[in-house]
Amino acid sequence: MFLLKVFFLLLQVVTVAVYSRADIPPPPEPEPIEIIELPLPPVASAVEGSCTSGTGCILQHAGLVQGGSFLPDGNHVIARVNYTGAPAAPDPASVYTGDQIILVKADGSSFSNGSPFKCITCGVPQDSSQGKTEALDYPQAFRDGRRILAGTNIIDCGEFDLVSDECTPESTFIHPIRWNTAVDGSGEGGSIRELRLHPDNLHIGFNSFTYDAGKLNQYAYTGRLALNSAPTTGLPMAPRYDLTNVNVLSNNDTRNIPLIVDRDQIRINTDAITVGEFRGFSGSGKEATYIGYPRESSNIDVFAVDLATGDVRRLTSHPEYCDPIDISADDEWMAIMDTRGSNRQMFMAGMRNVPPLTDIISTTATSSTRNNGQRRFFQPYLLDHYGDRDDYYGQQVNAAGDGSPGSINDPQWNGMADPRFSLDVTRLVYWQALVVSPACGGENPLPCPNSTEPGGRTERLMVAHFTSRQPVPVTDIEPLSDTISWGTPYEPGTVPSRELFISGGVYTLYGTANGSAQVTIVENGDAIETVAVTYESYSDDGLTFLDGTENITVRNPTVTLNEVDWYSDLTQRGQTNATKKTSPDGFHLSIDVNTNIFNANGTLSTTVNGTLYTQPANGT
Length: 620
Ligand SMILES: *[C@@H]1O[C@H](CO)[C@@H](O)[C@H](O)[C@H]1NC(C)=O
Ligand SMILES: *[C@@H]1O[C@H](CO)[C@@H](O)[C@H](O)[C@H]1NC(C)=O
Ligand SMILES: *[C@@H]1O[C@H](CO)[C@@H](O)[C@H](O)[C@H]1NC(C)=O
Ligand SMILES: *[C@@H]1O[C@H](CO)[C@@H](O)[C@H](O)[C@H]1NC(C)=O
Ligand SMILES: *[C@@H]1O[C@H](CO)[C@@H](O)[C@H](O)[C@H]1NC(C)=O
Ligand SMILES: *[C@@H]1O[C@H](CO)[C@@H](O)[C@H](O)[C@H]1NC(C)=O
Ligand SMILES: *[C@@H]1O[C@H](CO)[C@@H](O)[C@H](O)[C@H]1NC(C)=O
Ligand SMILES: *[C@@H]1O[C@H](CO)[C@@H](O)[C@H](O)[C@H]1NC(C)=O
Known about the structure:
By secondary structure, this protein is an all-beta fold. It is built from two helices and 40 strands. The protein has three domains: 29-250 and 477-489, no CATH class; 257-466; 505-614, no CATH class. The strands form seven sheets. Strands 31, 32, 33, 34, 35, 36, 37, 38, 39 and 40 form a ten-stranded antiparallel β-sheet that branches. Strands 8, 9, 10, 11, 12, 13, 14, 15 and 30 form a nine-stranded mixed β-sheet that branches. A hairpin with a 3-residue loop joins strand 31 and strand 32 (514-524). The longest helix is centred in the middle third of the chain and has 10 residues, at 359-368.
């Protein structure tokens, strides 16, 4: 789930130039990419004894729970699987049960057990995994090849390489990570989500929800991992990693505010640090990536912020939705999962250069339309360090194939989070899930495809090989500073907050190049309910000019439900001719961020240079 908050403050603008255009090289030529599929354990039914493989079987659906990163050797991929159908005890194979972390050979070879799989967490004695938490998501390798971060756990094979025969269940330890949020150090600590390991292997970044004034918010943090082998306070009272030197990746400075109010004027702060959802670290660890407050209306992008200086780079600008991202160890490349090419979001985001004003309230809804329940519209794309620019929108990684069922570019196989580069940057591992009911079949006009995978498996683990590349040597990583100068040191007992909203009233936003927008903000209680804008020859780039009106009203009957009333009648002229219009009765969208099922009446459509983009049908 992804949420963006409102950031406001009545202060002065600070701008920081990051690159001048002259510094940016031309985009790279497309490169040769070979795709292979990695093996996964065979599929079995949930019936005990239905698995005849000595090294376990997985569920047909969601048997691959998540693909992870490569080990540092580039020959093994970490995966989270859900084992099923285990032979009944006392068969020793019954350790292959439930939610586990495995290694998969990526070079076609086998472990000494003769299989391409090695379960790392299966059969680890309870004494060695006290306090282990259920979350094993986003499994990521440490650079020593001996430890894995999985969810809020660190799996540790001590002095042994995870791939070696010496790394057995008996030599493996699983320690939970605890973030103390209580003044007296008691309790289980704060809830931490979507952990990413900093390449210094000493720090992590993560997201955590807050609930203030009935609104669900999310903040991002960094923290240092400190092994506490004998805790005296807090739960669990077992060997664990405590997070120390925790920083909130936000503060109340103007630098964190995308729209700045100065009396009756609004200005857009294009260099604002607006960490909506933390997504990871760059290869050198100097930057954090995040989904930020949009730079263009309804266009959700990934940004990078320099952890030392706070300089921000916008990495993607394609109107479609982006969120999973990995930056290569040499910082030269990024791999993203993006809805680009699917036209999913074009009906609302296709018109470019619309300032992000209605987004004050609509961003949660406009980012929720990107998928239909379990159906993602993501495909993996490769971009260079500088990201989208001019006509460059990267190279689709899995472009090979004829689009037929089960082919490499079969659009019914949806990209999932995260794609990950090998440390030497010659490979990328990504995983996909086949669309399944109710996102297809039944009333849905999309028939459910039959999986062509062994056993009808509905997930698959893929490796892209960049065959023309030389391996990039491993370099030392400068440890992340324990102080993020532009963030806020976290104090236990406090809850971050920055929901300082713009007051109701009428404001003017002047185009950088021409014209203006009149912005009316309507408050209801302690929240902004409506943003209404009238554009007059508005232009930031001097190339396209915007006229017309747009207003959006958002209500939250529950914390996760967004009810949106949307009226657009916008016309853009100049280098691009575009329109963005709702039907006369408006466009009314109801969407819950927990399910992301599109449900609307009325229409919203966009034309760009004569191409018409319309909204998805309800439930699709
Ligand atoms: C594994 O499968 C079981 C049985 O279907 C299910 O209850 C459990 O939630 C699954 N675990 C994960 C992590 O998907
Ligand atoms: C920002 O200001 C609010 C309201 O004054 C305060 O509650 C909050 O703690 C501040 N947040 C940070 C990160 O300093
Ligand atoms: C899937 O297989 C079933 C049974 O063979 C068949 O009836 C159905 O048409 C197939 N679906 C598609 C989309 O090919
Ligand atoms: C620039 O804006 C002014 C009004 O502010 C308008 O008269 C003029 O036509 C605009 N220029 C273009 C090219 O739209
Ligand atoms: C939004 O625009 C529609 C159509 O122009 C109009 O009927 C409605 O009153 C406007 N709503 C607000 C709150 O400005
Ligand atoms: C619209 O067409 C013009 C002329 O071909 C082109 O310069 C411009 O980039 C196009 N706009 C978009 C958004 O594709
Ligand atoms: C935009 O519309 C104008 C006026 O109809 C036309 O002259 C121009 O060629 C169009 N530009 C593009 C890129 O389609
Ligand atoms: C249109 O959608 C809105 C918002 O979900 C809802 O309140 C309204 O009842 C719907 N109208 C019709 C005619 O379905």
